[in-house]
Amino acid sequence: MSYTYQWLDVPWGDGDMGSWADRSPLHEAASQGRLLALRTLLAQGYHANIVTIDHVTPLHEACLSGHLACVRALINAGANVNAATIDSVTPLYNCCVSGNVGCMELLLQNGAHTHMPHTHFPSALHEACKRGRSQCVESLLTHGADPDYEVSHLGSPLYMSCLHQHTACSKILLHRGANVNVGRGGDGPLHAAVRQDDADQVSLLLDYGADVNLRDSNNQRALELAPQGGKTQQLLQAFEVSPRSLCQVCRIQIRNLIGRSRLKHLSCLPLPPLLTHYLEHT
Q1: Where are the alpha helices (DSSP H) in 143-272?
Q2: pLDDT (tens digit per residue) in 99-119
């Protein structure tokens, strides 16, 4: 990508940022992973938070390219881990694009916010679910990201992972207590999975308590959307005839009563391992 860079008087770092410049050598070094050049430029006085006209920082570039050593050097030099472009893209978001969990962990350990303050801004968690970055999803949730965080035009992270057929991401979200029926507007995760004829996703959602009677914005149930003769249609038809067992119903109810915030403590309860595994879906 090509950017025009400028120094801006912003509340990050030290010093005045007032003069214009083209794409800076610091951005080039960060993007290409040239650590020695990056350190040299910082020592020569290049500011770690130099930005483009679109507010792209060297840290954005290093995270997008997945250069962990450059990310560390920039943070040590005072780079703002929550810097946002004019499109509200953060370095954390770029880690989800590149899929680099090491860079993500470093940002989170140094104060990166898992969510932006407004629900229409780009979400790192949604981007990770869209791209199937299951390790990034796990890391974000471990550091406090809300598995039900909704972006107005995207819906929930679970809806995003179902829409893009990333079962591993869906499994992590559900294991961490994501609401199985929260999607985008009236459209639930089950609707999204059925439209893709994704039998694995549908089976997973049903196991975690998806409501087959929910209707989308067109007043249609998931079964009505299933491709004729497809695997999801067969799954849903079989479910209609033989719904959840008492064992499944009890597990869903107990997990709901425990509450999402306490699910991570299940292994600490004085329960037989078999019961713990049952409640954890493992």
Answers
A1: 157-163, 167-175, 189-195, 199-207, 222-225, 231-241, 246-258
A2: 999 999 999 999 999 987 766
